[in-house]
Design goal:
The chain has 176 residues and is mainly α. It has one domain. Helix 1 runs antiparallel to helix 7 and helix 4 packs across helix 6. The longest helix has 53 residues.
Length: 176
Amino acid sequence: MLQLLVLMFLFASLAWFISWSMVGLLFYPKKPIHFLGNNWQAPIIGWVKNLQISKIIPSDNLANQLDQLMPVIDQKLDDFFRNRLSEKLPMISMFIGDKTIEQLKSVFMEELKNMFPELIQSFASNMQNDLLKKLEEKSIERLYIHLMSATAPFRKIAIVLGLTWGILTYWILNLF
């Protein structure tokens, strides 16, 4: 009878440990561990490092998106040249007329069209770095807690299966 209890306990513990480690090992270790010339770090951090946000942002549609933004950009540039520039630099506003403002706006709009893809790529890169930093600092612990609580029923099922496996093992061992 003691053998039955020991086997049930061992198999239940093993099943619980395996189910816990399947989730836990995604998040640990947070800082890389150097062991025998290899680096070991949480797989979820590696996945975020390899995530390419620039692929999520559709680059084939950038020209269309920029065309949709152009009226807003034009309005903002017009407001800048007609109002805010005269507030900041009153001397320059005396020499700038409507024709000069339109020429300046067209030059700025052309330059923005050239800069927009590069700005988007830079934004995506910075966003990826920020995501990784936030994940390492704050979110990984919260995600771990949520994932562990979400998988708690599976660990309970694993314990029941371990207990059942322990009983079956005891029964098979005593049969022979």
